């Protein structure tokens, strides 16, 4: 059931993107999110498409796997596309069925917005696909360091994030196990009326909550036992190191913004 | 009821980069009213095989026959409920599946799901609780107030109350104290004899496998390495040790003794009593030949 989910999943293959510093990836994506809004015509969207494709290509992630995992998102994209086509009433009428008029602006808007959506999702999923959760939190902690000046609990936030991310697979495994145990006792999770299915969730959720609370307590005790006392003066086993390639990636994304600016209308 | 598999193969996460072959070429038969033990190293595919026995997993190649139901690769079987009623599985650490407010309700959960009326389900729950040795005053308590061992018994009772024809056990006594282990293993053995059901036991304890089972299946790296009676399996103990498996204590002792004596004292023995008899025979023979 959950094996096709690729949201937030790390794929351990070797690639250029995998080797980058998480900080440069985070920054590059942040910049990308802003510059994607610069594009407003066919040429600029074309440039973005090429960029996205190159990024996917350099990640070594099997494209088919990526698209299979994002199927759900595609429905969302189609939905936004249809909304734009149906409700934008600007420009020339392209098709007229009497009850349905498709306007030129509606069509272009629909295509552009869907593409923007698609590129955003592809590029942001590349982050989690090529970076381990630990790397992401390390990168975030390091990027947010300046916030400590205003007493923002950067380390605690990063710790919370890494614990949450670390336990996603554990929780998934546990869900799978308990589901199977209850299925063996006659629970049917996938058939029957909505009410029945909602009821079937109870024997799954309660054991899951109980084991999560237990695990949280055990984890807290284990951390204390090993002398954990917050981030003050704590050194890191994994050192982040910023290489030339990371600078180049940032420059590439920035210049992409520049190029888009030149070609926009 | 008989369960058999034909050329069963199972892959996890098919068509993803995580694809992994977990089982292949599995041809096993679990005859009616038998006691089968499945042994093997961690990761040899024992637990994956178990989940095929009541359709929780469906093979990616081959087929599984469960009574008169056939589960074939690639064909989604819709109604597996009758199969799940007949084949009860007690998973590893089954106490993690408890969720009801009272012990009684939790034990009744299975029977009620399979359409047993409430009154009858409560009777079955009472009987199952007795079988696993839970005292009656625990029935109205919350399962979460109980000790780990008692919770385990409640969870096992929950499966017994379904009155399955085949009882599949995945290391049911892991983490229990020695006395609890013995009681529970004896209970399963009695159940198998008296109620004419089949038991499939996955275990790391070679003592349990040799003592209770009449068939043993040895799994290694996702396939059946060997199958046969305990005598067959343990007659070549060195092979099992090479697979990283343990052998019963009596055999371990015998091997050490033979190493010291530099000669064989006879066939392998499966229990301490048998071993003692064999050694005494050996000693007498030894003294007469001198």
Automatic annotation (TrEMBL), chain A:
<feature type="transmembrane region" description="Helical">
    <location>
        <begin position="26"/>
        <end position="57"/>
    </location>
</feature>
<keyword id="KW-0812">Transmembrane</keyword>
<protein>
    <recommendedName>
        <fullName>Energy-coupling factor transporter transmembrane protein EcfT</fullName>
    </recommendedName>
</protein>
<comment type="similarity">
    <text>Belongs to the energy-coupling factor EcfT family.</text>
</comment>
<keyword id="KW-1133">Transmembrane helix</keyword>
<keyword id="KW-0813">Transport</keyword>
<feature type="transmembrane region" description="Helical">
    <location>
        <begin position="107"/>
        <end position="130"/>
    </location>
</feature>
<feature type="transmembrane region" description="Helical">
    <location>
        <begin position="69"/>
        <end position="87"/>
    </location>
</feature>
<comment type="function">
    <text>Transmembrane (T) component of an energy-coupling factor (ECF) ABC-transporter complex. Unlike classic ABC transporters this ECF transporter provides the energy necessary to transport a number of different substrates.</text>
</comment>
<keyword id="KW-1003">Cell membrane</keyword>
<dbReference type="GO" id="GO:0005886">
    <property type="term" value="C:plasma membrane"/>
</dbReference>
<keyword id="KW-0472">Membrane</keyword>
<dbReference type="GO" id="GO:0022857">
    <property type="term" value="F:transmembrane transporter activity"/>
</dbReference>
<dbReference type="InterPro" id="IPR024919">
    <property type="entry name" value="EcfT"/>
</dbReference>
<dbReference type="Pfam" id="PF02361">
    <property type="entry name" value="CbiQ"/>
</dbReference>
<dbReference type="InterPro" id="IPR003339">
    <property type="entry name" value="ABC/ECF_trnsptr_transmembrane"/>
</dbReference>
<feature type="transmembrane region" description="Helical">
    <location>
        <begin position="244"/>
        <end position="263"/>
    </location>
</feature>
<comment type="subunit">
    <text>Forms a stable energy-coupling factor (ECF) transporter complex composed of 2 membrane-embedded substrate-binding proteins (S component), 2 ATP-binding proteins (A component) and 2 transmembrane proteins (T component).</text>
</comment>
From TrEMBL, chain B:
<dbReference type="GO" id="GO:0015087">
    <property type="term" value="F:cobalt ion transmembrane transporter activity"/>
</dbReference>
<keyword id="KW-0813">Transport</keyword>
<comment type="subunit">
    <text>Forms a stable energy-coupling factor (ECF) transporter complex composed of 2 membrane-embedded substrate-binding proteins (S component), 2 ATP-binding proteins (A component) and 2 transmembrane proteins (T component).</text>
</comment>
<protein>
    <recommendedName>
        <fullName>Energy-coupling factor transporter ATP-binding protein EcfA2</fullName>
        <ecNumber>7.-.-.-</ecNumber>
    </recommendedName>
</protein>
<feature type="domain" description="ABC transporter">
    <location>
        <begin position="3"/>
        <end position="246"/>
    </location>
</feature>
<dbReference type="GO" id="GO:0042626">
    <property type="term" value="F:ATPase-coupled transmembrane transporter activity"/>
</dbReference>
<dbReference type="GO" id="GO:0016887">
    <property type="term" value="F:ATP hydrolysis activity"/>
</dbReference>
<dbReference type="InterPro" id="IPR030946">
    <property type="entry name" value="EcfA2"/>
</dbReference>
<dbReference type="GO" id="GO:0005524">
    <property type="term" value="F:ATP binding"/>
</dbReference>
<keyword id="KW-0067">ATP-binding</keyword>
<dbReference type="InterPro" id="IPR015856">
    <property type="entry name" value="ABC_transpr_CbiO/EcfA_su"/>
</dbReference>
<keyword id="KW-0547">Nucleotide-binding</keyword>
<dbReference type="InterPro" id="IPR003593">
    <property type="entry name" value="AAA+_ATPase"/>
</dbReference>
<dbReference type="InterPro" id="IPR027417">
    <property type="entry name" value="P-loop_NTPase"/>
</dbReference>
<comment type="function">
    <text>ATP-binding (A) component of a common energy-coupling factor (ECF) ABC-transporter complex.</text>
</comment>
<comment type="similarity">
    <text>Belongs to the ABC transporter superfamily. Energy-coupling factor EcfA family.</text>
</comment>
<dbReference type="InterPro" id="IPR003439">
    <property type="entry name" value="ABC_transporter-like_ATP-bd"/>
</dbReference>
<keyword id="KW-1278">Translocase</keyword>
<dbReference type="InterPro" id="IPR050095">
    <property type="entry name" value="ECF_ABC_transporter_ATP-bd"/>
</dbReference>
<dbReference type="Pfam" id="PF00005">
    <property type="entry name" value="ABC_tran"/>
</dbReference>
<keyword id="KW-1003">Cell membrane</keyword>
<dbReference type="InterPro" id="IPR017871">
    <property type="entry name" value="ABC_transporter-like_CS"/>
</dbReference>
């Amino acid at each position: 059931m959950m094996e096709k989910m690729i949201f937030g999943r790390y794929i351990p293959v070797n690639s250029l993107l995998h080797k980058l510093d998480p900080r440069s990836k985070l920054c590059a994506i942040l910049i990308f999110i802003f510059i994607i809004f610069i594009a407003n015509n066919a040429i600029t969207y074309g440039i973005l498409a090429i960029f996205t494709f190159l990024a996917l290509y350099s990640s070594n992630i099997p494209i088919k796997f990526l698209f299979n995992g994002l199927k759900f998102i595609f429905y969302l994209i189609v939905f936004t596309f249809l909304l734009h086509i149906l409700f934008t009433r600007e420009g020339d009428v392209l098709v007229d069925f009497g009850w349905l008029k498709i306007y030129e602006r509606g069509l272009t808007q629909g295509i552009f917005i869907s593409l923007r959506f698609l590129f955003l999702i592809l590029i942001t999923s590349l982050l989690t696909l090529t970076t381990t959760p630990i790397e992401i939190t390390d990168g975030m902690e390091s990027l947010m360091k300046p916030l400590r000046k205003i007493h923002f609990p950067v380390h605690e936030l990063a710790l919370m994030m890494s614990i949450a991310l670390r336990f996603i697979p554990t929780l998934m495994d546990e869900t799978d196990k308990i589901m199977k145990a209850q299925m063996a006792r006659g629970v049917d999770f996938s058939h029957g009326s909505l009410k029945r299915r909602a009821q079937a969730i109870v024997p799954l959720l309660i054991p899951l909550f109980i084991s999560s609370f237990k695990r949280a307590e055990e984890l807290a005790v284990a951390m204390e036992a090993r002398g954990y006392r917050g981030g003050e003066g704590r050194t890191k086993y994994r050192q982040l190191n910023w290489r030339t390639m990371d600078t180049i990636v940032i420059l590439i994304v920035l210049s992409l913004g520049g190029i888009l600016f030149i070609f926009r209308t | 009821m008989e369960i058999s598999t034909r050329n069963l193969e199972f892959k996890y996460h098919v068509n993803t980069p995580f694809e992994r072959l977990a089982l292949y070429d599995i041809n096993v038969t679990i005859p009616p009213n038998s006691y089968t033990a499945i042994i093997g190293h961690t990761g040899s595919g024992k637990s994956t095989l178990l989940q095929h026995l009541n359709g929780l997993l469906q093979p990616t190649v081959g087929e599984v026959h469960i009574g008169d139901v056939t589960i074939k690769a690639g064909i989604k079987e819709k109604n597996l409920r009758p199969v799940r009623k007949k084949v009860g599985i007690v998973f590893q650490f089954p106490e993690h599946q408890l969720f009801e407010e009272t012990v009684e309700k939790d034990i009744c959960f299975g029977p009620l799901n399979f359409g047993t009326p409430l009154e009858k389900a409560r009777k079955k729950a009472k009987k199952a609780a007795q079988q696993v040795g839970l005292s009656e005053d625990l029935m109205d308590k919350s399962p979460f107030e109980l000790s780990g061992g008692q919770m385990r018994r409640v969870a096992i009772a929950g499966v017994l109350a379904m009155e399955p024809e085949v009882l599949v056990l995945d290391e049911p006594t892991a983490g229990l104290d020695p006395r609890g282990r013995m009681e529970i293993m004896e209970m399963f053995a009695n159940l198998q004899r008296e109620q004419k059901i089949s038991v499939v036991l996955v275990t790391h304890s070679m003592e349990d496998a040799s003592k209770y089972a009449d068939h043993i299946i040895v799994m290694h790296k996702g396939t059946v390495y060997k199958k046969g009676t305990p005598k067959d399996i343990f007659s070549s103990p060195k092979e099992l040790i090479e697979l990283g498996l343990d052998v019963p204590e009596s055999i371990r002792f015998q091997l050490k003794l033979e190493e010291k004596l530099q000669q064989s004292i006879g066939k392998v023995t499966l229990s301490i009593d048998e071993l003692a008899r064999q050694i005494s025979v050996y000693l007498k023979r030894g003294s007469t030949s001198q």
